[in-house]
Amino acid sequence: MNSILNQLDDLSERLAGLGEPKFRARQIVKWLFDSRVTSFAEMSDLPRPLRERLSQEFSLWSSTVLAHQRSSDGTEKLLLRMADRGDIECVLLRDGARRTICVSSQVGCAMGCVFCASGLNGVERSLTHGEIIEQMLRLSRLLPTDERISHIVMMGMGDPLANLPGVLGALAWASSPQGLGISARRITISTVGIPAAIRKLADMDCRYHLAISLHAPNDELRTKLVPVNAKIGIAAILDAAEYFFEKTGRRLTFEYVLLAGINDQPVQAEELADLLSGRGALLNVIPYNPVAGLPYRTPSRQAIARFREILQSRGIVIKIRQRKGDDINAACGQLRRSVASGALSIVSPEQAANS
Ligand code: SAH
């Protein structure tokens, strides 16, 4: 059945078609975003016949929760099975007062980054905007009623710029006061760097924060780590990033996954400083989160510190991101992979309640 989350943009018209007044759409949207309801029956200010009609026409969710993991550091992760049986992951991270959710944009990923678990089997399809909103609503329902999501990062499975319609459709609701009401500045779109899509975002006067996954200071190494780079090249990405900054006035972030012995050496830190200095961008360094079966390692603390010092001494604003949720396979695509390979047996909340 069709999820109502895919119908939000023209809900008033749909309801008018059912002979209902326009304000019903506002009521339904409020139930979806501001409450914890999991069925139309609970929408108590709607006439009973409308509630019945809605449950005949639409489902609330289009996925089922295949697994729900909680880490000792407060991170929670959901593995969702979509209606066509594709699996995706989404994560809730707790950090001080921040409640950040990390959301997927595609089932699988086409970018093929060699160290990432999400793209090992390629991409199946892009998610609809409703399926992306669904992750946000399911994660928000994990919070106590006095807490709200404060930040969104499009850093789950897939590349958000390879699915602009789905991502922008969902983020419009995330940032709207009628939806989740999260300020666009607190929403990050993270991409491997697709120049045409970055320019498109710039031309739309994008208000979201943009992060570009660089991972290497030269094309030879970047193409080894991020195979799609062969067709793109760092220069085209930096040009598009410059264009984005000029058009929107928004500083962007470059992300750099630090892989021991591969891109964490002083020579790469110097080369990266050459590439980034004068651009006013931030550098977000992510020590590698090991994926079972892949040959990459997290650098030592000394190697991370050395990398940081070189860039700092060259005036680059650098942040080392803390890893979270290590005990629950929190790196992109890891949970899905361990379930698919049988390494992890899962109990869904529904099964747990029945057992
Ligand atoms: N496709 C988007 C979103 C991917 S996830 C992008 O490439 O930006 C967000 C970040 O996590 C990316 O920088 C990605 O390269 C990184 N990442 C993926 N697997 C990782 C791992 N095992 N450890 C650390 N970072 C990882």
Look at the helices and sheets and give the structural class.
Answer: alpha/beta
The percent range for strand residues is: 15-25%
The appropriate CATH architecture of the largest domain is: Alpha-Beta Barrel
CATH topology-level fold name of the largest domain:
TIM Barrel
Helix share of residues?
25-40%
- Determine Rg (CA atoms, Å): 21 Å
Structure, described:
This protein has 2 domains: 2-58, Orthogonal Bundle (DNA polymerase, domain 1), CATH 1.10.150.530; 64-354, Aldolase class I (TIM Barrel), CATH 3.20.20. The radius of gyration is 21 Å and the shape is globular. Helix 6 (195-203) runs parallel beside helix 9 (234-248) and helix 10 packs parallel to helix 11 (301-313). With 355 residues, the protein is an alpha/beta fold. The chain has a 10-stranded mixed beta sheet with strand order 1-2-3-4-7-8-9-10-11-12, with helices on one face. The two termini are 28 Å apart. Residues 345-355 have low confidence and may be disordered. It has helices spanning 11-17, 23-34, 48-57, 129-140, 164-175, 195-203, 219-225, 229-232, 234-248, 266-276, 301-313, 334-340, 349-354; strands spanning 64-70, 76-81, 87-95, 98-102, 106-108, 123-126, 151-154, 187-191, 209-213, 253-258, 282-287, 317-320. It binds S-adenosyl-L-homocysteine. S-adenosyl-L-homocysteine is lined by residues 111, 113, 115-116, 155, 159, 190-192, 213, 255, 257, 286, 288-289, 291, 331-332.
